[in-house]
UniProtKB/TrEMBL annotation, chain A:
<keyword id="KW-0547">Nucleotide-binding</keyword>
<dbReference type="GO" id="GO:1903805">
    <property type="term" value="P:L-valine import across plasma membrane"/>
</dbReference>
<keyword id="KW-0378">Hydrolase</keyword>
<keyword id="KW-0813">Transport</keyword>
<dbReference type="GO" id="GO:1903806">
    <property type="term" value="P:L-isoleucine import across plasma membrane"/>
</dbReference>
<dbReference type="GO" id="GO:0016887">
    <property type="term" value="F:ATP hydrolysis activity"/>
</dbReference>
<dbReference type="GO" id="GO:0015808">
    <property type="term" value="P:L-alanine transport"/>
</dbReference>
<dbReference type="InterPro" id="IPR027417">
    <property type="entry name" value="P-loop_NTPase"/>
</dbReference>
<dbReference type="GO" id="GO:0005524">
    <property type="term" value="F:ATP binding"/>
</dbReference>
UniProtKB/TrEMBL annotation, chain B:
<feature type="transmembrane region" description="Helical">
    <location>
        <begin position="200"/>
        <end position="220"/>
    </location>
</feature>
<feature type="transmembrane region" description="Helical">
    <location>
        <begin position="324"/>
        <end position="347"/>
    </location>
</feature>
<dbReference type="Pfam" id="PF02653">
    <property type="entry name" value="BPD_transp_2"/>
</dbReference>
<dbReference type="GO" id="GO:0015658">
    <property type="term" value="F:branched-chain amino acid transmembrane transporter activity"/>
</dbReference>
<keyword id="KW-1133">Transmembrane helix</keyword>
<dbReference type="InterPro" id="IPR043428">
    <property type="entry name" value="LivM-like"/>
</dbReference>
<feature type="transmembrane region" description="Helical">
    <location>
        <begin position="247"/>
        <end position="267"/>
    </location>
</feature>
<feature type="transmembrane region" description="Helical">
    <location>
        <begin position="123"/>
        <end position="144"/>
    </location>
</feature>
<keyword id="KW-0472">Membrane</keyword>
Length: 252, 401
């Protein structure tokens, strides 16, 4: 029984069957990759997990509880954090403030009327945020305006914001998309470091096969909204069905 | 000091000094001089400065922090005024209970209107708040006449019950007071050609504004304020970070509604009548202008913007053709008439034109408002000073070499 159990999930947009009877089981504290050609339904599946979309049918269980019908903030409070395809950060705030906000969310819950306390006197959370920034090598940038940084930095910041909450499940939507080579390598190193601590489950969507094969312990291949195969990276590499999905039958 | 960092403490002290000495600062010109008409140090106008300052500070908590642009905040101003006047009619001429009720009732109003309006964001939120405010305005004018006294406006009358101090007022309308201190009491000090008015009403308003300003600084620096800024920056990220943005925005809306109610209550405390026109959309638009002109999202901007607009409204609008003729009297007749004709549309009744132009200039060249202008000037000076010290350092180096 995995920490995340997706059973028979269907999602239809008008005439398009985006997800058709998707089953997925992610084991606790492993790294699970979901790959597939464009339009396979990877992002739709992720959106169903975080409450952005509600599936037409099926069930999504996380840690023994259903996530369906819950709002995104409730699902996050259950322990699921998400890194977006294009970095979603608080562009108008400083780097440190960006990391402080999830610290407050973790400690105080979804809402607390803390209008009299001062941010500057929250030493404990500040230390927590600074530690996290050191972990992702951004401590020197803590007073930078988050919106002015490079894409790679924004991505690392977003990961720091997710990791500082110590989520049980981290969802990563193409974490290296549009990154320079050096940034990609840094990101892989960071993700590997997190994986090897074995205290967090990762579910990663990725196009870059380098990233997938160096990170994942299980891989699910989606095509046209349905899972083709689920196996270890070694078995996936030469799988005829996977080649077919990616390259088309004629070239096999 | 008071739980603020050094920079904020300095700002607070500066604002405190400026408001406390405003009667002197705003009357820089001797009474008999030609410039006397630019003096703004009379109680009525000074009260307006600080009261609309409170209104704008509160508006800024919503608009400056969360980015939600309310176009109906005058409704809370009006509700505050009506509540205060009713308190004067029913309970006592003491301003304290009136102000408390004004804040309370406008808070309840803001809770209801905010709860509905905040279901939408962006332009739809603005339209919803505008609709609510216009609804309140029209109701106050028509159906709610028993409560608002319709077109005439709600006023005191001799047969008001005034449970606590109704007995003392025989023959003439009583005046508002704070535990006996009459709001209209004014001490005039003459020093040489200058004359300064120290009004009790102004100082009550000014002290309340200082408290309101201090509270807003605390909110800006609190975790709550941080969350509000996060709402403005990226609401989606906030929701995926486990925070529910709805109660945060609603709390900000209610707080800013209560600030508006406080301002409305103070307006009625200084002059105990309340009319529906206080709720009209132009009044809502005015506070938006004040905040943007001064600098939305800055601490002091809204107060500056409020002062700026109220100064224009009251001083520029008084410059009529006669005044212009006396100004240009030294010039030959033809040129004098020509200049008067040119300047005429910009002053007197045309003051809106000048204000509009100023507003356009600020928005185009200083998107951060007057505060940004101040910062730029400050930087310019610092740079020059920096260059000078560099030059001096160079100069002192050269002979040594």
């Amino acid at each position: 029984m995995g920490i995340l159990e997706v059973k028979g999930v269907n999602k239809r947009f008008g005439g398009l069957q985006a997800l058709g009877d998707v089953n997925l089981s992610v084991t606790e504290n492993t790294c699970h990759a979901i790959i597939g050609p464009n339009g396979a339904g990877k992002s739709t599946l992720l959106n169903c997990l975080v409450g952005k979309l509600i599936p037409d049918s099926g069930s999504v269980m996380f840690d023994g509880q259903s996530v369906l019908g819950r709002k995104p903030f409730e699902i996050n409070q259950m322990g699921i954090s998400r890194v977006f395809q294009t970095p979603e950060i608080f562009a108008d705030l400083s780097v440190l403030e960006n990391v402080l906000i999830p610290c407050f969310a973790k400690r105080d819950g979804a809402f607390r009327m803390h209008a009299v306390e001062q941010v500057s006197s929250e030493a404990e959370l500040r230390d927590m945020a600074l530690h996290m920034l050191e972990d992702v090598n951004m401590a020197d940038k803590r007073d930078h305006h988050a919106g002015t940084m490079s894409r790679g930095d924004k991505r690392r910041l977003e990961m720091a914001m997710c990791l500082v909450q110590k989520p049980k499940l981290l969802l990563l939507d193409e974490p290296t998309a549009g990154m320079a080579r050096a940034d990609t390598n840094n990101t892989i190193d960071l993700l590997k470091k997190i994986r090897d601590r074995r205290d967090i489950t990762m579910c990663i969507i990725e196009h870059d096969m380098n990233v997938v094969f160096s990170m994942a312990e299980r891989i699910t291949v989606l095509a046209q909204g349905t899972p083709l195969v689920e196996d270890t990276p070694d078995n996936i590499k030469g799988h005829p069905k996977v080649r077919e999905a990616y390259l088309g039958e004629a070239q096999v | 000091m008071l739980g603020l960092n050094r920079k904020d403490t300095t700002l607070l002290i500066a604002v405190a000094i400026l408001t406390m000495f405003a009667p002197i600062i705003l009357n820089p010109f001797p009474v008999d001089s030609a410039m006397a008409q630019f003096n703004a140090g009379y109680p009525d106008l000074m009260q307006r400065f600080v009261i609309f300052g409170i209104f704008a500070i509160g508006f800024n908590i919503l608009f400056g922090l969360t980015g939600y642009l309310s176009f109906g905040h005058a409704a809370f101003l009006g509700v505050g005024s009506y509540s205060a006047v009713w308190m004067f009619k029913l309970l006592s001429m003491n301003v304290l209970p009136a102000i408390l009720l004004a804040v309370l009732i406008s808070g309840v109003f803001a809770l209801v209107i905010g709860y509905v309006s905040l279901r939408r964001s962006g332009i739809y939120f603005s339209i919803l708040t505008l609709a609510f405010a216009q609804m309140s305005f029209n109701l106050a004018y028509s159906v709610l006449t028993p409560i608002t006294n319709g077109e005439t406006g709600l006023q005191l009358s001799l047969d008001d019950p005034r449970i606590l101090d109704g007995a003392g007022s025989a023959g003439s309308l009583p005046v508002t007071n704070l535990f006996g201190l009459e709001m209209r009491a004014t001490e005039t000090v003459n020093l040489g050609p200058w004359s300064w008015d120290f009004s009790a009403g102004y100082y009550v308003c000014a002290l309340i504004m200082l408290a309101a300003f201090y509270l807003s600084v605390r909110i800006f620096r609190s975790p709550f304020g941080l969350m509000l800024r996060a709402v403005k920056s990226n609401q989606q990220r906030l929701n995926y970070t486990g925070l529910n943005s709805r109660p945060y925005t609603l709390a900000a809306f209610v707080i800013s509604g209560m600030y508006a109610g406080l301002a409305g209550g103070l307006l009625a405390s200084m002059d105990p009548l309340a009319g529906a026109e206080r709720m009209q959309w132009t009044a809502s638009g005015e506070v938006v202008l004040m905040t943007i002109l001064g600098g939305a999202g800055t601490l002091i901007g809204p107060v500056l913007g409020a002062g700026f607009i109220k100064y224009f409204e009251n001083i520029f609008s008084k410059i009529n053709d006669n005044v212009l003729h006396t100004w240009f009297a030294v010039l030959p007749d033809g040129i004098e008439d020509f200049l008067v004709t040119i300047v005429h549309p910009f002053v007197g009744k045309g003051w809106h034109l000048t204000l509009g132009l100023m507003f356009m200039l600020v928005v185009i060249f200083l998107p951060g408002g007057l505060v940004e202008g101040g910062q730029r000037i400050g930087r310019l000076f610092r740079r020059r000073k920096g260059k000078q010290t560099d030059a001096e350092a160079d100069a002192s180096k050269t002979p040594a070499e």
